[in-house]
Specification:
585 residues; alpha/beta; Rossmann fold; six-stranded mixed beta sheet; four-stranded parallel beta sheet; binds iron/sulfur cluster
Length: 585
């Protein structure tokens, strides 16, 4: 009862900015495998729900992971997970469509199915009256393999064109016993049961036997013209983690090619919405919220962004960009952002030394970082957050200490210029190797070594005074790397974590730490051990679990970028008007 009451209160607090179709035909539950406030802040989830919810022949509802204070009820089986809108059991739907933005939510997919009384493993649902389980979203773009044994069909790529195609096909074949054959014909669809991986005696992927029609490569779907589709807040609610914002997606991809960044490669080539579209969407948003959250990989390079910020400021609102590359912040943009009340800004040097910034291809000098900070502070911004990564490939101890040096220089510059500087926060984040990046072969550094680096920086920054430090947990990064680089066998580890009801980083780490050698038999209790995926350097000639996805980026290009990193050589930003080197254009 308590959960239903909360659901009704949530619905009452929401404002839908579109007409629902409540179509008759197929019942779809769009599931975000995390709690409601997190889900409602995700534009990808809102957009895909909107596609289903406005289709004339689809009756769509939503479902989420239970809130922490309700979870025990569902974990014990005392309660069954139901949909938000009508409280319907998830097993009653024709399709459960998971929208997954972060690979760490893969574990929650198993929990949602279990809490709904649906067998998580695909083979345990085969031939039985359970919903079709499909999944898409940015995490799936990169590597769906850790959950391949739990999902019937994946939709890989951007959903605006792919999802409607899928719905039409489903409506045409829904009753057919072999409907999956037809659904797998949607471009971008990936049917995991067509692929049978085989491993060599070192546990590495040796081959993948494909039993489906046509080519085994799955071509990732992209939308060529972003202006054709609106990606902005469609349901506003105070309860969302960005509850005070109206979110507007400005671009997909990035031209800068930082070698650790998945968003910079998986969405290639870079695509922007036009300034006219963005100003119109921001103006519309100001009738709902006072803050416009501008979303994308890098916002200072968005064409017309200073005018957009000024238009929002002139209309009495505030533009809050997701991230800004320091050297791309124009004086006009700095002024408009400060004018509209931005008192805090995040600058992402990513690495402390010039050497490391060349290794990661940041194309950003120390002088540019310092001048951007001085400009923003000069315009009235008070608080600075500096985003750094630790444990990057080719990193030396000096590069780590250079983080404290850079923060110190920034403070000293403000003092020398008699500029008022409020809170300075150094954010330290363990490097997590991501598929489809030049660093995809690189291992994550041992969490203990990263912990030592954090301690070293804590004391170095402590000596500077007036600098706050927040550090991401290396143990959480370990789990993220496991589900980021894992293959299908990681599914068994996820099952073990779910069976142990691991619902937070601490329990997950403890359970993973127990995965070791069985005292009696000496055999690994998980085979392979998580370290095999996390702290092992992948060889450039080994088959990677995600190689079957065609991102239209040449693998040799990623390898050549990795080599350039070793020699600290940078690559200029993308010029989509005349370049085709990586294959994406
Ligand atoms: S082909 Fe060139 S411009 Fe296009 S995404 Fe690749 S590197 Fe960038």
């Amino acid at each position: 009862m308590f959960a239903r009451k909360r659901a009704l209160e949530r619905l009452a607090r929401e404002k839908l900015l579109y007409e629902r179709s409540r179509g008759a035909g197929v019942c779809v539950c769009v599931v975000y495998p995390n709690v409601y406030p997190v889900a409602m802040a995700n534009l990808g989830f809102q957009s895909i729900f909107h596609i289903f919810d406005t289709h004339p022949r689809v009756d769509a509802e939503r479902a989420f992971l239970p809130d922490p204070d309700e979870r025990a009820n569902f974990d014990s089986g005392a309660a069954r997970l139901v949909s938000l809108e009508r409280g319907r059991p998830l097993s009653d739907f024709d399709i459960l469509a998971f929208s997954i933005a972060f690979e760490t939510d893969y574990l929650n997919l198993l929990a949602v199915l279990r809490m709904a009384g649906i067998p998580p493993r695909r083979e345990d649902r085969a031939g039985r009256a359970f919903p079709l389980v499909i999944a898409g979203g940015s995490a799936i773009f990169l590597n769906p393999e850790p959950i391949a044994d739990f999902v019937d069909l994946f939709l890989i790529g951007e959903g605006e064109e792919m999802a409607p195609e899928f719905i039409e096909r489903f409506l045409a074949v829904r009753g057919d016993s072999n409907r999956l054959d037809d659904l797998a014909k949607v471009e971008g669809a990936y049917r995991p049961d067509y692929y049978l991986p085989a491993y060599d005696d070192r546990g590495r992927l040796a081959a993948v036997r494909y039993s489906g029609p046509g080519s085994p490569a799955v071509s990732r779907r992209l939308v060529a013209k972003l202006d054709r589709f609106k990606t902005a807040s469609l349901i506003v609610t105070e309860e969302s983690v960005f509850g005070d914002m109206y979110l507007v997606e400005a671009s997909r991809g990035c031209q800068w090619g930082c070698r650790f960044c998945a968003a910079g490669f998986m969405y290639r080539p870079i695509r922007y919405r036009s300034p006219e579209t963005l100003v119109a969407e921001a103006t519309r948003g100001l009738s709902e919220r006072g803050v416009i959250g501008l979303v994308g990989a890098e916002m200072a390079s968005v064409p017309g962004v200073a005018d957009i910020a000024q238009a929002v400021a002139d209309a009495g609102g505030r533009l809050s960009p997701s991230s800004l590359k320091a050297d791309c912040i124009s004086p006009a943009l700095a002024s408009a952002l400060a004018q509209s009340g931005n008192r805090s800004i995040t600058i992402a040097p990513e690495a402390g030394s010039e050497r490391m910034r060349k290794v990661i291809n940041k194309n950003l000098s120390e002088a540019e970082i310092l001048s951007a900070a001085a400009m923003m502070i000069g315009e009235g911004v008070e608080n600075l957050k500096l985003y750094f990564m630790l444990g990057l490939p080719e990193e030396h101890a000096d590069d780590v200490l250079a983080i404290a040096d850079l923060a110190g220089k920034l403070l000293a510059q403000a003092r020398a210029r008699r500029q008022h500087i409020g809170r300075v926060t150094v954010s330290l984040n363990p490097f997590v190797p991501k598929p489809w990046t030049p660093f995809q072969w690189d291992a994550m550094e041992d969490p203990r070594a990263i912990k030592r680096k954090i301690a070293m920086l804590r004391s170095a920054l402590g000596r500077l005074g007036a600098i706050e430090l927040d550090a991401e947990s290396p143990r959480e990064a370990y789990f993220q790397t496991l589900v980021s680089r894992g293959d299908r066998r990681v599914g068994a580890i996820l099952e073990r974590l779910d069976a142990a009801r691991c619902d937070a980083p601490g329990p997950i780490w403890r359970e993973l730490s127990e995965l070791g050698r069985d005292a009696a038999s000496g055999r690994w209790t998980a085979s392979p051990h998580p370290d095999f995926y996390v702290t092992r350097q992948f060889a450039h000639d080994e088959i990677l679990a995600w190689d079957f996805i065609d991102h239209h980026i040449h693998k040799w290009f990623l390898a050549s970028e990795r080599k350039k990193a070793h020699f600290e050589h940078q690559t200029p930003p993308c010029d989509v008007t005349r370049c085709d080197v990586c294959g994406a254009c």
